[in-house]
Specification:
Layout lengths: L1 H9 L15 H9 L8 E9 L2 E8 L5 E4 L2 E10 L1 E5 L2 E3 L2 E4 L2 E4 L1 E3 L2 E5 L4 E4 L5 E4 L4 E9 L3
Antiparallel strand pairs: 1-2, 2-13, 3-8, 4-11, 4-13, 5-10, 5-12, 6-9, 7-8
Length: 149
């Protein structure tokens, strides 16, 4: 009997993942991104998941994007595949509101250019104009964090 109790105590406990935990393989993310339907701006998006003040978004671009300015969201961008150039800062040209808290524009004047390659990570603060120039194809994952005003 003592041996049985000892053996039971030595077995590892099987635990479930904690609430809110999630994971995706690289292959799953690639497949989801490639399955997105491209819009008139040659971009397709898949909101993978949302948790409180942050979410995970996959974006596939097959051409240059519009300038984006998020009033209350930070973008943490990781390049999954492809290459491009991220323009940040400066002023959005012909900016117009598309939905509350979101502006779009044609281009940026006075911004800085940053090459985008697989594995690179970029942190774009709220209210900062940014635009991706994509000569061929780019897949990114974006952690969007809503910040207080």
């Amino acid at each position: 009997m003592k041996l049985l109790i000892f053996m039971a105590a030595a077995l590892p406990l099987v635990a479930a993942d904690p609430d809110g935990f999630a994971s995706w393989t690289s292959a799953e993310l690639q497949a989801r991104a490639k399955a997105t339907k491209l819009d008139e701006h040659k971009a397709g998006a898949d909101r993978v998941a949302s948790w409180g003040n942050h979410s995970l978004l996959l974006v596939r671009r097959e051409g240059d994007g519009e300038v984006e300015v998020h009033e209350n969201q930070v973008d943490v961008i990781t390049v999954i595949s492809g290459a491009g150039t991220l323009i940040v800062g400066g002023t959005a040209v012909d900016a117009h509101q598309t939905v509350p808290g979101e502006l779009r524009g044609k281009s940026i004047t006075g911004g800085t250019s940053h090459k985008m390659a697989v594995g690179d990570v970029f942190h774009v603060p709220a209210k900062v104009p940014h635009q991706m120039l994509v000569p061929k194809s780019l897949i990114i994952q974006v952690v969007k964090v809503t910040v207080s005003q």
